[in-house]
Write a structure and sequence with these properties.
The chain has 20 helices and 37 strands. The strands form 10 sheets. An 8-stranded mixed sheet has the order 18-23-24-31-28-27-25-26. The protein has a 5-stranded mixed sheet with strand order 2-1-7-4-5, sandwiched between helices. The chain is globular and about 95 Å long. By secondary structure, it is α+β, with helices and mostly antiparallel strands. Strand 1 and strand 2 form a beta hairpin. Bound molecules: zinc ion (2 copies). One zinc ion binds next to loops.
């Protein structure tokens, strides 16, 4: 009998009978760990635990609690869901059922629509399949056999998938649990009984292979976790996210609208939303001026020839909009870089002028597919807090570090923890290897010097250079892209930018593209959901609402209002002839930080009695100036 040498995760090597399964090998050494293992990695390849090992190999377990293990678990649940659906519903065809970020889905061809009651029935049937503890069994058959197998069963989508495989694929694998057989590469969990926690979430239409000329299928989404506690926590967050949805709060707080009459992906800011945005933009201008940036402004459309020169026309055209003026083609800007290049080029630059930091609250248009548009989070027109820094190669490190410090400060002001990723060269890119290496090293070194931990995202850079991405974490633990720093050696080349060095010679400056909050619209969406609409005092579009008890209190209400407005406190009047309780409830719905009720006592003593939003505490009677000082103190801390 042939023997194999197996290297285990603890580094020890042992000899096993050839054909011993990955699971048996691991069980012989790490018995307990096997209970929560869903698959194994044998010589780097992920396989089922019952796969025989016939050659020398290193073996690692994939645990159910790892991201990879969770993906295998969820994909396995999708097979069980497909089995349950075919058990219950006549004439349903199966297609594909991958695991995705937070769960899984399976697409079915079904003449009707699955209802919430149907989902309950499917879940029940799935529970029966799970408790029967069917093993997942893999077998390989020839391609021809597989085609006739699925043709016999009328599974035309599976037949299409097999026929589309590359010519050199001669065998395919099938997985079965109980009576259900699916075409699948695997791997799968050992048996259905391993599933402890799952839930079907919703149904959506989806075109076969995402192509709208194909048939519309029914997609059922679900999720699964290693434990019920984790599933419960996930479902709690999903519910909380619905409650905080910025599109819903945007309507309730009267911040903005999206209107199909105007066009999808286009935001219309109402007074309070526009005020919130203005507060953020004012903060931006002030903070940039403090850090040695120059504010600049470029045009919304620029000639197509200039977009050719920059490389955008070749690499970014699909996302751009075009127009024509006097028979001259123009591109509507998807990025703000070009005008900044022209500003730099407007005179001869010396090394003494550098670094130059051009900042623009730059509005851009990008063609996003209708399906991915999502309120403020993903719009077709948005405004970035964009800047381009032109410097000498020697200044690069200090500039990148200063930007990282700026991001850190900004995240502190808005109250977000964040994570950092470094993205390297993508396939579709321009520039030389040497430049890419130089730029990537510059970013890496700056992160090291600032002692910022980071992950590497291979191949996820921009087409013109590597980048650092900052991802903030909101109150629900969700991550959102905010700041980026992109290194670019190409644009200065294409625009032939230069400066005169200390040696009297012409040199090429290097360039950084960077944003701090990113798209202001999306940042606002994140803020709305993070705070659930209850913005801190310094960011609240309305900081105080003045409520009168009866009409005779209006004169004092007006007096308070004008004193507050004059002092820069953002406030609203509710002097309507309505019951006070009703007006207070409405104020609470609007999540205004302070409500000032004006009654007899306030009128006689010329005071206000603020009621705080957070905790609903009454601050007692105080002079108008004292209230102004209270609000100012809350704002000064941040701004
Ligand atoms: Zn599968
Ligand atoms: Zn740029």
């Amino acid at each position: 009998m042939k023997k194999t040498t197996i290297t285990l995760p603890d580094g020890s090597a042992e000899s096993y009978q050839s054909g011993t399964t990955a699971g048996e090998i691991v069980a012989s050494r790490f018995g307990e760990a096997l209970a929560s293992a869903v698959a194994a990695r044998v010589n780097g390849q992920v396989v089922d635990l019952d796969r025989p090992v016939n050659e020398d190999a290193s073996i690692e377990l994939i645990d159910i609690s790892s991201a990879e293990g969770l993906g295998i678990l969820r994909h396995s649940i999708s097979h069980i869901m497909a089995q349950a659906v075919q058990d219950i519903f006549e004439g349903v065809k199966v297609t594909i059922g991958p695991s995705i970020e937070d769960g899984f889905y399976y697409d079915f061809e079904y003449a009707n629509t699955f209802t919430p009651e149907d989902l309950q029935k499917i879940e029940e049937r799935m529970r029966a399949i799970i408790s029967a503890d069917h093993p997942f069994v893999r077998r390989e058959i020839s391609r021809g056999e597989a085609v006739s197998f699925f043709e016999e069963r009328g599974e035309s989508y599976k037949v299409e998938l097999i026929n589309d495989l590359p010519n050199d694929v001669t065998r395919v694998s099938l997985y079965s649990q109980g009576s259900f057989v699916d075409l699948c590469r695997g791997p799968h969990i050992p048996s259905t009984g391993m599933i402890k926690a799952f839930k079907l979430l919703n149904v959506a239409g989806a075109y076969w292979r995402g192509d709208e000329t194909n048939k519309m299928l029914q997609r059922i989404y679900g999720t699964g976790f290693a434990t019920q506690e984790e599933l419960d926590e996930y479902l709690r967050i999903v519910e909380e996210a619905k409650r905080r949805d910025h599109r819903r709060l945007g309507r309730e707080l009267d911040l903005f609208q999206m209107n199909d009459e105007a066009g999808p992906g286009l935001v219309i800011f109402h007074p309070k939303g526009a005020l919130l945005r203005t507060l953020i933009e004012d903060w931006e201008r002030k903070e940039h001026l403090k850090r040695g940036y120059d504010i600049v402004m470029g045009p919304q459309i620029l000639k197509v020839d200039l977009w050719r020169k920059s490389g955008h026309f070749d690499h970014y055209r699909e996302n751009m909009y075009f127009t024509e003026v006097d028979e001259q083609p123009y591109g509507i800007k998807p990025m703000n870089c070009l005008a900044h290049m022209l500003i730099y080029k407007s005179k001869i630059r010396s090394y003494r002028d550098l670094p130059l930091r051009y900042f623009e609250l730059g509005t851009v248009h990008r063609h996003e597919k209708t399906g991915v548009l999502h309120g403020l989070m993903r719009a077709r027109q948005f405004t970035q807090d964009d800047a381009h820094i032109l410097c000498t190669p020697e200044q690069l490190n200090a500039e990148i570090r200063a930007i990282a410090d700026f991001v850190d400060y900004a995240m502190g002001v808005f109250g977000f923890p964040y994570e950092v990723e470094l993205s390297t060269r993508p396939e579709d890119s321009i520039g030389t290897d040497a430049d890419w290496d130089l730029a990537t090293d510059a970013l890496r070194l700056a992160l090291r010097d600032n002692e910022i931990p980071y992950d590497v995202n291979e191949g996820d850079g921009a087409f013109y250079g590597p980048k650092i991405d900052f991802k903030l974490k909101d109150a629900l633990g969700r991550k959102w892209q905010c700041a980026t720093i992109q290194c670019d050696f190409t644009l200065p080349e294409r625009f032939d930018l230069s400066y005169i060095g200390a040696d009297g010679e012409k040199h090429r400056p290097v360039m950084l593209h960077r944003v701090i909050l990113g798209a202001i619209e999306r940042f606002m969406g994140v803020l709305i959901e993070h705070y659930a609409g209850a913005f801190p005092v310094w960011l609240s579009p309305v900081q105080a609402t003045i409520l009168t008890v009866t009409d005779k209190h209006i004169p004092h209400g007006e007096e308070v209002y004008s004193r507050l407005v004059e002092a820069g406190v953002r406030c609203e009047r509710d002097f309507r002839n309505e019951k006070l309780g009703y007006k207070i409830r409405e104020g609470q719905m609007q999540k205004v930080p302070y409500m000032l009720v004006i009654g007899d006592r306030e009128m006689e003593s010329g005071t206000v009695s603020p009621r705080e939003r957070d905790g609903g505490k009454n601050l007692g009677s105080m002079g108008i100036d004292d209230f102004i000082a209270t609000v100012r103190e809350k704002c000064d801390r941040y701004a």
